């Protein structure tokens, strides 16, 4: 007869599996995470940061299609497969949207695409510019599923690659907040006295400063950039973790198993890390899920203000900033699509956090 596992972990997992919205949200998070990792594999635009601009086809509606002529530069980028799949291709070729073309006497004549019923410029290029004078592989019919942005870049590719920042900032920010918060909260709660008073003074000072203002100050101090934003957001989210750890530590250090550990002669480090922290990790998991959502919103706000991820790097917040005025210009989807993506990811993390809270609640 098989034994039934009745450990607290297995019971919490069983309760979590019964929560439909929690499991559904977790699947959404996993899917977005996989898409962000393999963004360059599935994105139509494989160039670095999906930054291939075509100004002649800017702000086109979803489903727009056009013939694209690629003119090879003949320059070898010497980029390995790993770098192409995870960081994009160093595209040295030129892409030109065209409306028509013909070949006469080893010369390719083409008409550049022009919108609003206008006739584009007539240009020509020698077939010798193409390998073996074969131009056909370099003319492709391309469809932009989400249309193009105001610079003529493929919007679907920008959305997919922009998910990287919004997704991974949650992991980095939560890791930093847990690292700092666990240390500060454990010291304050376990030792108490002057150490507790000092740490609580630091916590209260940090807590009194508006989060966005503190992030802006740290970002300006560290400089604008990708990792600077991650560090800045993480350094502003440790306060809540520290307060929860401190409260849990104060109550846990009076438990009998801690008294027994002291009687056995274990040092404070072992008691805190091996005995107390594993027993208070339930509330921390819930806080971490909420901090994921908060980090995504803070990063989006910073990118919207222009001090987050810098162009040409794709970011959902920066995409809203670039296109929010299109809401009144008849193309609101340019701002609504990244806004919906932010809302979906934040809601998924919040629902997972609620499901974890219910699953880890020993009273139920």
From TrEMBL:
A single cellular component GO annotation: plasma membrane
CDD domains: TM_PBP2 (cd06261)
Record flagged with keyword Transmembrane helix: yes
Coiled-coil spans in chain: none
Source organism, top-level taxon: Bacteria
UniProt keyword annotation of Transmembrane helix present: yes
SUPFAM superfamilies from the UniProt entry: MetI-like
Chain ranges of the ABC transmembrane type-1 domain: 163-353
GO biological process: transmembrane transport
Keywords attached to this entry: Cell membrane, Membrane, Transmembrane, Transmembrane helix, Transport
Transmembrane segments: 20-43, 165-191, 198-220, 226-245, 276-298, 333-356
Classification via InterPro entries: BP-dependent_transpt_permease (IPR050366), MetI-like (IPR000515), MetI-like_sf (IPR035906)
Cellular compartment(s): Cell membrane
Topology of the protein relative to the lipid bilayer: Multi-pass membrane protein
Recorded family membership: Belongs to the binding-protein-dependent transport system permease family.
Protein's recorded name: Peptide/nickel transport system permease protein
Native source organism of the sequence: Winogradskyella arenosi
